[in-house]
Design brief:
370 residues, mainly alpha, two-stranded antiparallel ribbon, two-stranded antiparallel sheet, 4 strands, TBC1D19, TBC1 domain family, member 19
Length: 370
C-alpha cells in the first residue's frame, strides 16, 4: 500500500509541475488543432487525438519531460518531514552548509562596501550602447579587475570540509589505518566495490568504450562505426532515456550536441530564444558586482587555456545571462543549498532579494561547470 501511495504522490507531483510548463500549452494547442483533421472521428475522439500526438512526436516529448522530472523531484516518503530534511537528512551537514553560505555572502557584501561598488546598478545609456555593440567580442576588453577578489578561496572551502565532524561518531576510538585515509573524514554510507561494478557496468573492461583502446574483442574502428550508427538511431528516436543509457559508453563528437540536448531535454523553441534575448537585455541594462567576478574568472583561466580560449566570448555571454536567469532558482526546490539574499536597503529585511538573480554566486573556475 505504501508503494502505491508513493507512486501516486510522484505522479501527482510530476503532473503539477508539467501542467504549468510550455510543453503543456503546446500539447493543448496541438490537440485542439488536430480536431479539424479528417482522420479525427467524434465517436473515437480521445483515441484519435492520442494517436495523432503519438505519430506526430508529441508523446515522445512528453515522455522525455516526465523522465527529466523523475530525476529532480524530492522523495515522496515521510510527508510530515520538512523539505530541508528531505533534501539533506544530516543535521550537522545542514548546519555547516548554512554557516558556509553566510560566510560567502558576508564576503561579497564586505567587498561591495570596501570597494564602494554597488551590488547592482543601472548602466548609463552610453555604456549600454557600447556593451550592445561589442556583445560578440567582449574578450577584447581589458578592464582593471585587480581590486576584485573571489568570494572565497579553494583553501577556505577545503578547511570547512576538513572540519566536518559527525557528532554521533565516536572520535575517541584508537587511531587506526582508516583514520589516515584522507583529510576529510565524514562517515557517509557509500557503495562498496561490487555495488559500484553493478552501477557502472558499462565501464567493464569486457565492454567497448568509445575513445578507449581496450575495447575487448572488437576492433576499434569496427566498434566506433557500429557505435556511431546506433547513436544516430538514438538521436532519430528522440528518447531522453535511451540517449542517457547510450552515452554511458561514450559520446561521439559528431552527435554530442544532439545527445546532450536529448539528455537534458533542452529545446530551442522561439520562446527559448525570446527568453535569452530578455536575459541579454537585462545584462545590457543593469550591471552586477558579480559580473566583475565572472570577467576575472574567465580572464584568468579560460583565456589562457588551450581548450577554452576560443570560447572566451561565448563564456562571457552565457555566464552573464546565466547570472540573471531566475529559472535556475527551481534548482533549489530539490537541492539542499539556499539561494543567497541581499538587501535593497540595509536593514530592511522585508526587501531582501535573491542575489544574484539566479541564486548562484560565481567562484573560481565556475565557468567550467556551466
Amino acid at each position: 500500500m505504501e508503494d502505491g501511495s508513493e507512486f501516486s504522490q510522484s505522479v501527482a507531483q510530476i503532473v503539477q509541475r508539467l501542467r504549468g510548463s510550455s510543453l503543456h500549452s503546446q500539447l493543448e494547442r496541438q490537440a485542439k488543432d488536430c480536431l479539424h483533421r479528417p482522420e479525427i472521428k467524434l465517436e473515437s475522439l480521445k483515441e484519435d487525438v492520442r494517436n495523432f500526438l503519438k505519430t506526430s512526436g508529441w508523446e515522445k516529448k512528453l515522455q522525455n519531460a516526465v523522465y527529466r522530472e523523475l530525476h529532480v523531484q524530492l522523495p515522496t516518503c515521510r510527508p510530515k518531514a520538512p523539505a530541508e530534511h528531505l533534501k539533506e537528512p544530516l543535521a550537522y551537514m545542514r548546519k555547516a552548509q548554512a554557516s558556509w553560505e553566510k560566510r560567502v555572502l558576508k564576503s561579497l557584501n564586505s567587498m561591495s562596501t570596501e570597494l564602494e561598488v554597488p551590488l547592482a546598478r543601472k548602466r548609463p545609456a552610453a555604456e549600454q550602447k557600447e556593451l550592445a555593440n561589442k556583445w560578440n567580442e567582449m574578450g577584447t576588453d581589458e578592464p582593471d579587475l585587480s581590486r576584485f577578489r573571489p568570494v572565497y578561496a579553494p583553501k577556505d572551502f577545503l578547511e570547512v570540509l576538513i572540519s566536518l565532524r559527525n557528532p554521533n561518531h565516536d572520535s575517541c576510538e584508537d587511531v587506526s589505518t582508516r583514520s589516515h585515509w584522507g583529510l576529510i573524514q565524514v562517515p557517509l554510507n557509500v557503495r562498496d566495490v561490487p555495488q559500484l561494478r553493478k552501477a557502472y557496468s558499462e565501464l567493464s573492461l569486457s565492454m567497448g568504450q568509445l575513445g578507449i583502446d581496450d575495447v575487448g574483442n572488437i576492433h576499434p574502428d569496427l566498434f566506433e562505426g557500429d557505435y556511431v550508427h546506433v547513436g544516430k538511431k538514438v538521436v532519430a528516436e528522440q528518447d531522453s532515456a535511451a540517449a542517457q543509457q547510450y552515452s554511458r559508453r561514450g559520446c561521439p563528437t559528431g552527435l554530442r550536441a544532439d545527445l546532450w540536448a536529448l539528455i537534458l531535454n533542452s529545446t530551442n523553441q522561439p520562446q527559448d530564444v525570446m527568453h535569452y534575448e530578455q536575459l541579454k537585455a537585462g545584462v545590457i541594462q543593469h550591471g552586477l558586482l558579480v559580473d566583475n567576478l565572472v570577467y576575472k574568472d574567465v580572464k584568468l583561466t579560460a583565456s589562457n587555456d588551450d581548450y577554452y580560449f576560443v570560447f572566451e566570448d561565448f563564456l562571457y555571454q552565457v555566464l552573464l545571462c546565466f547570472s540573471r536567469d531566475t529559472a535556475v532558482l527551481e534548482h533549489f526546490k530539490y537541492n539542499s543549498a539556499t539561494p543567497p539574499k541581499s538587501f535593497v536597503h540595509v536593514g530592511d529585511e522585508e526587501r531582501a532579494v535573491v542575489y544574484p538573480p539566479n541564486g548562484e554566486l560565481p567562484f573560481r573556475r565556475s565557468h567550467q561547470f556551466q
